[in-house]
Design goal:
The complex is a heterodimer of chains A (about 200) and B (about 775). Helices cover about 25% and strands about 40% of the residues of chain A. Chain A has about 200 residues and is α+β, with helices and mostly antiparallel strands. Chain A has one domain: Clam (outer membrane lipoprotein receptor (LolB), chain A), CATH 2.50.20.10. An eleven-stranded antiparallel beta sheet of chain A has the order 6-5-4-3-2-1-11-10-9-8-7. The longest helix of chain A has 16 residues. Chain A is globular. Chain A starts with a helix and ends in a 5-residue tail after the last helix. By secondary structure, chain B is of the alpha+beta class. Chain B has a domain of about 190 residues: Multidrug efflux transporter AcrB transmembrane domain (Multidrug efflux transporter AcrB transmembrane fold, Up-down Bundle), CATH 1.20.1640.10. In chain B, strand 11 and strand 12 form a beta hairpin. The chains are: A alpha+beta (about 200), B alpha+beta (about 775). The interface between A and B is large, with 48 and 37 residues.
């Protein structure tokens, strides 16, 4: 009997000592984020995925800067109004969210997921973050009235921060973006890093 | 002579009725197009037609925004509204075609031509040998996580030429977003959904206007009951037209009734008989028939302004009738022919003076003024024949036994001007008039701004402004019309114009411009583009395909033919461009080039002057200029008319005598604009046109005073008084109108005719009366 009690106490102790699923982190007031990304575009009928990698900078409520460094340097700034892609210092693409409102949702989703603000995404998806293997996941398939979305659904894998997002298109194309080296810093510091990163342009 | 006159009258009247019957077989060809009043010239004709076509396009539009805080409610209410309007035959909805104009359907049409369609920026890059930028751009866009390009598109267009072409050519400033198959905009927490369509009827047809208004009111109530607090903003010519008709109808009903009652009372009060009224109507009807017939015979159509002013001028025919019937107060003669003889001199001189004045007006190159002149001259002539040669046959009545009181009273004004005892008052009155005239002259402001002259209802204008603000529709003040003998020629002309416009854009003189060739380049331009792509871009294709992992496909297969504008209907041409296609007839095609953010018009004028196939249009300016030109021309011709009449009257009165006869009319014409300026009224085209009426009627008053002497003076003064009262009742009351043009006409007549009547007795010459009839 005593051995049974001892076993139960030990078992409880072990359970109690086991690592709990820590909730994903969210950016606080005045905080911004920067890190690395690797993107693989899987296009149907193509020989291989198209790979790219670089740095990203998230300035909440302001802009997401997507700086591709491989296979060559380019820079995309996504703000509230739309996106602008630059190449060798010149703008080559401008896309207004007025023309493509579905992209505005994708942009907001990127900002919310990168900054750990999962509640609005859970509400839109009608689902909660699912814990698995010490991490979380979310399948994001929002119900929007009449908005044509540039994706069928998104799969998120989340550790402390967003680690991977898979963007699945309705035609079967998909993009897998993996984030690493995320670092939270004051907005001013990230802004300075944004300016400094321009220097990388060859 | 009387019998010959009657026969001439009958022949003319029968001819007039026959002409009217022949011309009106297909209804009254009333021309409401103000541009048609412009001088006809070879250069301007196509512009006038283009403006008319564009106005017709614009006036057929109905735009409504349905607002509600909840998008789904706003959308549902908008769809309800659209369906009801369509079911009731009010509009053909544009929404039905929304699907057809989506990016996907456009892409399908444009895709085979993708190597021939290059944006201006891409052309510049290729021409400058910077094709690598286009290759890299494609790569950047393919790599973007927010990419528009899918596998299928990249496989068939790895350089993404078409999406970049569409993005560059359809960039627009509208705030409306495509959502759930409707166009919508969110502002201050409220969604506004667009309902847009082409009217199923004529927006200027009163029946259609009433039906549209009724349906709209009913559906508004229905939507409120079904969807709660729904805000509806609407605009379209049909609403403005309906308002204008309603206002005109209300005013015409009110003012017309007062003036009619007044004239009938006046007739019964003075003549105590129905007979004069009936014969006056015969004179008026004959005048209108004569004017209408001659105008239709020479012009084929009748301009609205000519009808309005012409009908006003032949109101003088009532005055002729008054002079005839006032002769019945002459107890000494009971012979109707004698009555006609007594007034013949004054009537003839008055008619010839008026006709000479109108002939002068007809010499101007303005069809509008020519029509007014011809209508009035021919109408007055027939009215004149009616009074002199028909009235005596229909009038068998004995002289009036009453009227002494009226005759004596009407001489009060004459006595004021001629009695020695009133000399001081006379000078005081003249000094007062001159003083007021000088003061008014200093305050005269000229206004040809058509926007103010239109006096549009404020509530409808506010709704239109709200729609413009919400939808981000810029009020484009200027545009070009470009002409060619076929669509491709017009596209080439646009591309030539674009070179200059690009320079103006770069220097900030214009903000931007849009032309159809931005979307469908000319054949020559497409072939140039293809050569650039083949020579400069295609050598990079293999490397680019290798970089993105694409093999086993031939993305750019050669195709024959070029994209033409004829491949697009108005339904599948994007809305940004469809309204630029103005009209196409065999041998002549006109497109518009829209301009926005115009800072300086002078360089644009210079551009238009470079080619006879390019015309600069400013809707408001061009109409304002038309009105301004008319105003000045009318004043010049008025002066010329006075000079011609002076010469004519000199034959009877001598140069000085003729001038004296003309002084009251000229003083009224000069003083009227000055006095109304004291009331804060601007001087416009409509005021200038009213002066023509004052010229003619004022001369009549003066001539009757000059021709009458002895006892007849009293009858002439009574007839002038009656003419003045009837003219003021018929036209002076128009001053109460809220429609600016009618108000301006009315107030000028009110002041001018009053002055002409008051001053007319000075035309008499007590010392040298006219004893010899003409």
């Amino acid at each position: 009997m005593l051995s049974t009690i001892r076993f139960l106490i030990c078992a409880l102790f072990i359970v109690a000592m086991a690592p709990a699923h820590s909730a994903p982190r969210a950016l606080g007031e005045g905080e911004a984020m920067m890190g690395q990304f690797v993107q693989a575009r899987y296009l149907r009928g193509f020989d291989r995925p198209i790979l790219s990698e670089g740095e990203f900078f998230l300035l909440p409520q302001s802009a997401l800067i997507w700086q591709t460094e491989k296979p060559f340097f380019s820079r995309m700034v996504i703000d509230e109004k739309g996106l602008s892609q630059g190449l060798k210092g010149a703008e080559v693409t401008r896309l207004s969210f007025k023309q493509f409102p579905g992209f505005k949702l994708l942009r907001d989703t990127f900002e919310n997921s990168l900054s750990g603000n999962w509640q609005p995404l859970e509400e839109m998806a009608g689902a909660k973050l699912l814990p698995a293997d010490g991490k979380y996941s979310l399948r994001f398939s929002p119900k929007t009235s009449g908005l044509t979305l540039p994706f069928a659904y998104l799969n998120f894998e989340i550790g402390d921060f967003l680690e991977t997002v898979e963007i699945v298109k309705s035609n079967g194309d998909r993009d897998v973006i993996t984030f690493s080296d995320q670092r939270v810093a004051p907005v001013a510091e990230v802004s300075a890093a944004v300016d400094a990163s321009k220097e990388k342009q060859p | 002579m009387n019998r010959v006159g009657l026969l001439i009258y009958l022949a003319l009247l029968c001819s007039a009725v026959a002409i009217i019957g022949w011309r009106l077989q297909d209804g009254l060809p009333l021309d409401t197009n103000i541009v048609a009043m412009l001088p006809q010239s070879e250069e301007a004709e196509w512009v006038a037609r283009a403006e008319a076509a564009e106005r017709s396009q614009g006036s057929n539009q109905l735009i409504v925004l349905v607002g509600h805080p909840d998008f789904e409610t706003a959308r549902s209410a908008a769809l309800d509204l659209g369906k009801t309007l369509e079911d009731n035959g009010i509009v053909n909805l544009a929404q039905n075609q929304l699907e057809k104009t989506t990016l996907a359907s456009l892409s399908e049409l444009l895709f085979p031509h993708r190597t021939r369609l290059l944006s201006e920026g891409d052309r510049r890059l290729l021409s400058a040998g910077q094709e690598q930028v286009i290759v890299d751009r494609a790569m950047v866009q393919i790599l973007s996580p927010l990419s528009l390009a899918d596998a299928e598109l990249i496989r068939r267009d790895p350089f993404l030429l078409l999406p970049n072409y569409i993005a560059a050519s359809t960039e627009n400033s509208s705030k409306l977003l495509s959502r759930a198959n409707v166009l919508a905009v969110e502002e201050n927490g409220k969604w506004f959904v667009l309902v847009r369509g082409r009217l199923a009827g004529n927006p200027f047809d009163k029946g259609f206007q009433s039906r549209a208004r009724k349906t709209f009111d009913e559906v508004e109530d229905k939507l409120e009951k079904r969807h709660g607090d729904v805000e509806i903003l609407k605009t379209g010519a049909v609403f403005y037209g309906e308002h204008a008709y309603r206002q005109a109808e209300d005013e015409a009903g009110f003012i017309g009734m007062i003036s009619l009652i007044g004239i009938v009372i006046l007739n019964f009060l003075i003549f105590r008989s129905f007979h004069p009224l009936a014969l006056s109507l015969l004179a008026i009807a004959s005048g209108i028939a004569g004017g209408l017939a001659v105008t239709l015979l020479f012009f084929g159509t009748l301009q609205l302004l000519a009808l309005v002013f012409g009908a006003g001028l032949i109101g003088i025919s009532v005055d002729y009738a008054f002079h005839y019937f006032c002769e019945r107060f002459n107890q000494a003669s009971s012979v109707p022919a004698a009555r006609a003889r007594a007034i013949r001199s004054g009537l003839t001189l008055g008619l010839v003076s008026s006709v000479l004045g109108f002939i002068t007006l007809a010499l101007t190159p303005f069809p509008g003024l020519q029509q007014i002149a011809l209508f009035s001259a021919s109408g007055l002539t027939l009215a004149y024949l009616t009074v002199l040669y028909v009235f005596p046959y229909l009038d068998r009545a004995a002289p009036f036994r009453h009227g002494e009181r009226y005759l004596n009273f009407s001489m009060a004004l004459h006595d004021f001007w001629w009695r020695d005892g009133t000399r001081t008052w006379r000078w005081l009155f003249v000094a007062l008039l001159v003083g007021a005239g000088i003061l008014g002259a200093m305050r005269i402001t000229v206004d040809d701004d058509v926007r103010r002259l239109q006096s549009l209802p404020q509530d409808l204008q506010a709704e239109e402004q709200a729609i413009r603000h919400l939808a981000g529709i810029e009020n484009q003040t200027h545009r070009f019309f470009v002409r060619g003998s076929n669509p491709d020629e017009v596209l080439q002309a646009e591309e030539a114009l674009a070179l200059d416009l690009e320079a103006l854009r770069a220097s900030g003189i214009i903000g931007s411009y849009r032309m159809i060739s931005h979307f469908v380049p000319s054949k020559a331009r497409q072939l140039e583009n293809q050569a650039l792509v083949e020579n400069l871009l295609m050598p990079h294709l293999a490397g680019h395909m290798e970089a993105i992992g694409l093999s086993r496909v031939v993305p750019y297969e050669p195709t024959d033919g070029v994209l033409t504008i004829d491949q697009f209907t108005d339904a599948n041409l994007p809305g940004l461009f469809s309204h630029l296609r103005i009209y196409k007839t065999p041998g002549i095609v006109v497109h518009a080039v829209s301009l926005s953010g115009v800072k300086d018009t002078a360089p644009l004028v210079s551009l238009a002057e470079k080619s006879e196939n390019v015309a600069l249009i400013s809707q408001a300016d061009s109409l304002s200029k038309t009105f301004g030109a008319y105003r000045i021309r009318a004043l010049i011709m008025l002066a010329v008319a006075y000079a011609v009449v002076w010469v004519f009257l000199s034959l009877r009165y001598g140069f000085v005598g003729a001038f004296k006869v003309m002084i009251p009319s000229m003083a009224a014409v000069i003083l009227a604009p000055c006095l109304i300026a004291l009331l804060g009224e601007p001087f416009t085209f409509f005021n200038a046109m009213s002066l023509m009426l004052i010229f003619a009627i004022g001369l009549d008053y003066a001539l009757f005073n000059r021709e009458a002497s002895g006892k007849r003076q009293r009858r002439a003064m009574l007839a002038n008084g009656l003419s003045t009262i009837s003219t003021l009742l018929a036209f002076g009351l128009l001053a109460l109108s809220e429609t600016f043009a009618i108000h301006a006409f009315g107030i000028t007549i009110l002041v001018g005719i009053s002055l002409a009547y008051i001053l007319a007795p000075r035309a008499a010459d007590i010392d040298h009366p006219m004893t010899e009839p003409l």
